[in-house]
Amino acid sequence: MSAFIVLFLRLVLAISLYVFLIWALYTLWRDFRAQTQLVTSREIPALVLALDQDEITIDEKFTQPEVIIGRDPATTFPINDETVSAHHARMSYYKKQWWLEDLHSTNGSFLNDERVISPVVVTSGDIVRCGQAEVLVTILYKS
C-alpha cells in the first residue's frame, strides 16, 4: 500500500515540475514578444535633408538618431559653404520627435526664418538655414 502512495507522490511531483517548466517558458516567451514589440515601436523615422548648392540638389537620408550639420567633411551632413561653421547644428531624435539645436555657430541656425536659441522640434517641410545654406527637412514616418 505504501508503494502505491510513493508512486502516486512521484507522479504528482513529476507532473508539477513539468507544469512549472511549461509555465516558466510561456512567461519568458510572452515577455520576449512584448519587448520585441516595444523595440520595433521605437524605430526612428528616416530624416531626409535636401540642399540646393551650385545648381545641384544634394539629398541624403538618415536613420541614425543624431545628424551633425556643418562645413567639416567629417560631419554627418557636410555643407561646402563659407558661411557655415565647422559644426553648425545638430538634429537629434528624442522623445519620438526630431529636434534642431544650434551648436554655438558664428552665423546662427534658423528654423523657418526664426533664430534657434534652444532646441526646437522639427517637422516635415521645415527649412533649416545654416549661414546662407538652406536645407529642406523631410521626415519619412513608417505607416
Describe the structure concisely.
With 143 residues, the protein is an alpha+beta fold. The chain is built from 1 helix and 11 strands; from the N terminus they run αβββββββββββ. It has 2 domains: 1-38; 46-140, Sandwich (Tumour Suppressor Smad4).
Query: What overall form do the CA principal axes indicate?
Result: rod-shaped
Which structural class do you get from the secondary structure elements? alpha+beta
CATH topology grouping of the largest domain: Tumour Suppressor Smad4
Helix fraction?
25-40%
- Beta percentage is 35-45%
Stretches with pLDDT under 50, minimum 5 residues: none
Please identify the top-level CATH class of the largest domain.
Answer: Mainly Beta
Strand order of the largest sheet: 2-1-11-10-7-8
* Structural domain count: 2
Distance between the termini: 68 Å
Tell me the Rg in angstroms: 28 Å
The helix/strand order is: HEEEEEEEEEEE
Main β-sheet, in a few words? 6 strands, antiparallel
The number of distinct helices, counting runs of at least 4 residues, comes to: 1
CATH architecture of the largest domain: Sandwich
Oligomer kind: single chain
Tell me how many strands there are: 11
Mean pLDDT: 90
Q: Can you describe what's shown?
A:
This protein is an alpha+beta fold and 143 residues long. The chain folds into two domains: 1-38; 46-140, Tumour Suppressor Smad4. Helix content is 28%, strand content 38%. It contains one helix and eleven strands, in the order H-E-E-E-E-E-E-E-E-E-E-E. It has a six-stranded antiparallel sheet with strand order 2-1-11-10-7-8, with no helix packed on it. A five-stranded mixed sheet has the order 4-3-5-6-9, with no helix packed on it. A hairpin with a 2-residue loop joins strand 7 (109-111) and strand 8. The protein is rod-shaped and about 95 Å long. The chain starts with a helix and ends with a strand.
